Each structure stands twice: as structure tokens, then as C-alpha cells.
């Protein structure tokens, strides 16, 4: 998505799909992170993260934060309350501890999820917009919580 912005009296184009920032391996930051464009974390971050764009947690990244973003891609470790407007992807090396709220969830085989999940839930007896493989991966996770709504929906074959 491209937006026009004014910078010192002239128009510039920003592309939210390009990488706008990086916390590299070996870097530790604490605080509040707000950004436009994609942002990648390969180091350590603790605090709050807010953006309408994409956040990527790299394989070496470790995050302890409340996160509200457009899209979240997890290859490393993340702990906290995670909310994504569009989707959350947990890749095979991803480790998630906390709560996830998103309309779409993609989980690769080998990923680890432990926590509470709300992805496209419409009622306690039905699921909408959720990849059934993701539900199985979540429920099948060793030590993961199994919220009642998910158990009921899964057992009824929804």
C-alpha cells in the first residue's frame, strides 16, 4: 500500500511493504515501538508495539510485548498479547507464548504455540475463516491451553 506524505514541503511516496526498520541481532531495546512500513526484529525487544503494517520476528528475534499490527510473521520467539488485523503466521521455528487474536492464522508444522487463541471465532459452536490445520496444530501443542470455544468447535467437526 502506497501513501503520499509531505516532508518539508514536498510529497514523498511510502511503500508499507518495504522494510522500514530493523532491530538487529545483539541489540536490546525496551519501550514503545510505532512504525510505518514493515519492521523486522532479530534482536530483543520488550514493551509495546503498534502499527498498521507488517512485523516480522526473525529466527534470532525475541520479543516480550503487547503487539497490535496489521500482519505478524513469527520465525523466532514472542511472548505477550498479540493482535493482528489481517493475519498471523507462525513458521516452523516460531515459538509463541500468550494470546493471539486475528481473523486468519497460519501455522507451519514444527511451530510451537502455548496460550489462548481467537482466530475467526463466530460463536462457541462454530469457527469462521480458520484453517483447520491451524486449529489441529494449536490443540495438539504440548502444554498448550485449550479454550472451551475451540474444544467445542473442534469436537463438533466445525
According to DSSP, the number of beta strands is 14
Distance between the termini: 35 Å
Biggest sheet details = 10 strands, parallel
The topology string of helices and strands comes to EEEEEEEEEEEEEEHH
Radius of gyration: 17 Å
- Identify the overall geometry: globular
DSSP helical segment count: 2
Mean pLDDT: 76
Oligomer: single chain
Structural class given helices, strands, pairing? Answer: mainly beta
Provide the helix percentage. 10-25%
Low-confidence stretches: 1-15, 121-158
Taken as a percent bin, the fraction of beta residues is over 45%
Explain this structure to me?
The protein is 10% helix and 57% strand. With 158 residues, it is mainly β. Strands 3, 4, 5, 6, 7, 8, 9, 10, 11 and 12 form a 10-stranded parallel beta sheet that branches. It has a two-stranded antiparallel ribbon with strand order 1-2.
Amino acid at each position: 500500500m502506497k501513501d503520499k506524505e509531505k516532508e518539508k514541503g514536498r510529497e514523498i511516496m511510502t511503500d508499507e511493504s518495504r522494510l522500514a526498520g530493523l532491530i538487529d541481532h545483539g541489540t536490546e531495546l525496551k519501550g514503545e515501538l510505532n512504525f510505518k512500513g514493515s519492521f523486522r526484529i532479530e534482536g530483543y525487544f520488550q514493551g509495546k508495539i503498534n502499527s498498521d503494517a507488517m512485523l516480522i520476528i526473525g529466527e534470532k528475534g525475541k520479543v516480550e510485548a503487547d503487539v497490535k499490527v496489521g500482519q505478524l510473521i513469527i520465525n523466532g520467539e514472542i511472548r505477550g498479547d498479540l493482535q493482528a488485523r489481517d493475519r498471523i503466521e507462525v513458521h516452523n521455528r516460531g515459538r509463541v507464548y500468550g494470546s493471539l487474536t486475528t481473523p486468519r492464522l497460519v501455522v507451519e508444522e514444527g511451530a510451537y504455540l502455548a496460550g489462548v487463541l481467537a482466530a475467526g471465532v463466530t460463536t462457541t459452536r462454530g469457527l469462521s475463516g480458520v484453517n483447520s490445520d491451524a486449529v489441529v496444530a494449536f490443540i495438539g501443542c504440548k502444554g498448550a491451553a485449550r479454550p472451551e470455544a475451540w474444544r467445542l468447535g473442534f469436537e463438533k467437526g466445525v
